[in-house]
Design a protein that fits this description.
658 residues; eight-stranded antiparallel β-sheet; disordered N terminus; alpha+beta
């Protein structure tokens, strides 16, 4: 012990006589010097182009002080052997039924580890060394290692892809990937085996036919391959659409359209470099490098992120292709947990104005941190598979087609109805944003003792920019398994006549739909205005219209169902704001705080069991990223658990369906 301690002391001699402040100053200066050296190396590497140099300098100067603080902390722990206290929640008067808050990505079976009391009735994230408090880490901390260096890494990639050497390599990789995609979209057996869920890839046949698409690049070993090997996921889906191929190609190649239309799966997409462009509106041969992050329909499922090349090409007079391929081997990262092999869509002319759209998803991913309740949903391809991507594309096409049909003067949308659809679209995108993991707003795990079939509940703090959220808010989410089909659950949740059976705030009230705008071919795909009213007993007895029911809440609701998933999302909106929008007013500054449900197959039992994710959001001016008020946590916990019980009872018991 003595020798080890002496050896450790010798390793820190340069910090031995320094104070904490002096150590921080020393490490800060060292980091700045390191950044300056890296900057000079980048400048010399790219040939000293003044424009690029100034952009690099601006990016470095814009680095946030928070990232630098974390880098200093890493240096302190690495070089100074300073014990930094662990982050924990501290609280007083814990509500009954809530054991602890933990950020672990796995189940917390240590029910005896209770948190100590505090002098305030809040869940505070603070530094403490008490052994009685639960350690707190970000919910997906394992998959987000090094995210504070994301800006620097994006900068490096964007600078690198501008060099001629990288352009040639990436173009070669993209052309090879496009050829592979075209073959995988057309071939059947033995490459693809038919199964109940569609088609499954024969990996042996794939390697025999294609080998490694990026085998001519040096492969660096994954640092964790020996403990967490990447698993292969592959799926293929085909649909027929009456849409010109160029519109689909533009949607995928235009980053603004791509991020907006596919926001139910795309958390973030950023173009880091455009390597090849054609004339305006012509995407034949267009090639760009992107940083992307995808999310599933449950926040319990980890995000997937990577750097990729996206390439579009007109293959012949009757076919277009758009392909993605990961750039992992060009920009290696030993912590890689997701590698996107050639994936994308092939669009072929069919007949009678129809086009055959075939989507292929192929990747290697580490699913070891996926919770058990979502495990088969993910590994079966339901979470990120081809069916999810293509069904979203089809739904958007049907939505726009359905609205265009209403150009008939008798069916045409008014300005107010169009603005209402815009507000509903913003509500849906806020809902999907809440589903996604953010390195600035991380989920925390809530352990519930009497939550029955709720396997995990997580909570986070949110504060939207631009006035969409009227103030600080808390979002709680939980995913449950319900023994009923997704369609049955969707019908139960979107029907205003059954709302009072599961919505705690509507119990004992009357729910009326006052406006409905259909936005799809599937029954139930619509945007609705619902009014929750307190029935006036005197009015009901006398049948007098002079004393109507009193409206206590107005809700904006959007519901839609695809072949892969269903959503029911709603938000309380002031009645005056609804009237203003319907009279032609602008919806941009109307605040919306969406809550709702995503409904998906569990991936294991066909259509007999569904995964339902419940997301509930409340305003709380006392909340902050470091503080979760206890009464708010308890209230949300009660809403989540009671709603889960009511939905299960409503869809399993046929007498409760109404």
């Amino acid at each position: 012990m003595g020798s080890n301690g002496e050896e450790k002391k010798d390793g820190n001699d340069e910090y031995q006589d320094m104070s904490i402040v002096e150590i921080i100053d020393y490490c800060t200066n060292a980091r700045y010097e390191e950044i300056e050296r890296e900057l000079e190396e980048m400048k010399s590497y790219i040939g000293g182009g003044s424009r690029v140099q100034s952009e690099v300098q601006r990016e470095v100067n814009r680095s946030s002080w928070k990232a630098k603080a974390l880098q200093i902390g890493c240096l302190l722990t690495k070089h100074c052997s300073i014990l930094i206290p662990k982050i924990s929640f501290h609280r007083m008067d814990p509500p009954e039924g809530i054991n602890n808050l933990s950020g672990s990505g796995r189940d917390n079976n240590d029910q005896g580890n209770r948190m100590a009391s505090s002098s305030s009735s809040t869940y505070n994230v603070q530094t403490s060394g008490s052994s009685h408090e639960s350690e707190i880490k970000p919910f997906w901390s394992r998959t987000e290692v090094g995210m504070d260096f994301e800006r620097e890494r994006n900068l490096f990639v964007s600078v690198s892809v501008g060099t001629e050497a990288y352009k040639i390599k990436i173009l070669d990789l993209a052309i090879t990937a496009m050829n592979e995609l075209a073959n995988m979209a057309i071939e059947n057996e033995p490459l693809w085996h038919p199964c109940i869920a569609g088609r499954i890839l024969n990996c042996a046949e794939y390697i025999k036919k294609f080998g490694q698409v990026d085998s001519h690049f040096p492969v660096l070993p994954n640092a964790e391959t020996y403990t967490n090997p990447l698993q292969t996921e592959a799926s293929r889906e085909t649909r027929f659409l009456a849409v010109q191929p160029v519109h689909i190609v533009e949607l995928l190649m235009n980053n603004d359209q791509y991020s907006h239309v596919l926001s139910n799966m795309v958390s973030k997409a950023k173009v880091l470099g455009v390597l090849s462009t054609q004339a305006q509106g012509d995407y034949n041969g267009a090639l760009q490098v992107m940083a992307v992050k995808f999310h599933a329909s449950s926040p319990l499922v980890p995000n997937r992120k990577c750097y990729l090349a996206r390439y579009s090409r007109r293959l012949n007079n009757n076919a277009w292709g758009v392909v993605d391929v990961s750039l992992q081997n060009l920009f290696p990262n030993p912590l890689t947990r997701y590698r996107r092999r050639p994936s994308g869509c092939l669009i072929e002319r069919f007949r009678d104005g129809l086009y055959k759209v075939t989507w292929v998803e192929h990747c290697e991913v580490d699913n070891s941190s996926v919770p058990e309740v979502c495990r088969y949903f993910v590994t079966s391809g339901h979470a990120y598979g081809a069916k999810q991507w293509l069904s979203t594309l089809v739904r958007q096409h049907e939505r726009l087609t359905h609205i265009r049909v209403r150009r008939d003067p008798k069916l045409q949308l008014s300005t107010g109805e169009a603005n209402l659809l815009i507000l509903a679209d913003q509500m849906m995108r806020n809902f999907w944003r809440n589903l996604s993991f953010s390195r600035k707003n991380r989920w925390m795990l809530v352990s519930l003792s009497d939550a029955e079939n709720i396997h995990k509940a997580i909570i986070r703090f949110v504060k939207e920019k631009g006035g969409r959220c009227p103030g600080p808010a808390l979002v709680m989410a939980a995913t449950i398994r319900i023994p009923a089909s997704a369609r049955r659950i969707f019908n139960f949740l979107q029907d205003e006549n059954s709302r009072s059976k599961w919505d705690i705030l509507s119990h004992g009230h009357v729910v009326q739909q006052t406006r409905s705008i259909s936005n799809g071919c599937v029954p139930g795909n619509r945007v609705s205005i619902l009014e929750v009213k307190v029935p006036n007993r005197a009015s009901r007895i006398s049948n007098s219209p002079e004393d109507p029911d009193r409206t206590v809440m107005t809700l904006l609701q959007e519901s839609f169902s695809t072949s892969a998933c269903s959503y029911v999302t709603f938000a309380p909106v002031e009645a005056s704001s609804i009237n203003m929008i319907l009279n032609g007013g602008d919806s941009d500054n109307v605040p919306v705080m969406p809550s709702g449900f995503s409904i998906l197959p569990d991936g294991l039992t066909g259509d007999e069991v569904s995964l339902v994710t419940i997301i509930f959001q409340i305003l709380d001016s006392a909340a902050s990223p470091m503080c979760f008020p206890a009464h708010s946590v308890y209230s949300m916990y009660k809403v989540i658990t009671e709603t889960a019980k009511a939905i299960t009872a409503g869809v399993v018991d046929p007498y409760n369906m109404g």
